[in-house]
């Protein structure tokens, strides 16, 4: 991971979200640590930006939602 960070970022600047698409190994490590340890089981609040229907449930634009990442991290159909 350090090797990738040194190669992509170097030592003369701070990492930013713009770098994420070039940090494949680092992203994979962070995702796997999150999956195994489930450090943040409840994600930050989000708000729907438009009206949506999910599995027959209507969710209005502006509804506050709290995604639960653990529902995906432990789903064997998603994480193999």
UniProtKB/TrEMBL annotation:
* Pfam families associated with the record: p450
Kindly list the GO CC terms recorded for this protein: cytoplasm
- State a single Gene Ontology molecular function: heme binding
UniProt keywords (A-Z) are: Iron, Metal-binding, Monooxygenase, Oxidoreductase
Biological process terms from the Gene Ontology for this record are:
organic acid metabolic process; xenobiotic metabolic process
Coiled-coil ranges (or none): none
User: Which family does the UniProt entry place this protein in?
Assistant: Belongs to the cytochrome P450 family.
Name of the protein in question: Cytochrome P450
What is the source species?
Acrobeloides nanus
């Amino acid at each position: 991971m350090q090797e990738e960070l040194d190669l992509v970022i170097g030592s003369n600047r701070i990492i930013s979200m713009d770098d994420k698409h070039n940090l494949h190994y680092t992203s994979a490590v962070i995702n796997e640590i999150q999956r195994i340890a489930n450090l943040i089981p409840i994600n930050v609040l989000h708000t729907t930006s438009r009206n949506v229907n999910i599995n027959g449930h209507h969710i209005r634009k502006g509804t506050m939602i709290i995604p639960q990442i653990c529902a995906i991290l432990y789903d064997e159909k998603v994480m193999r």
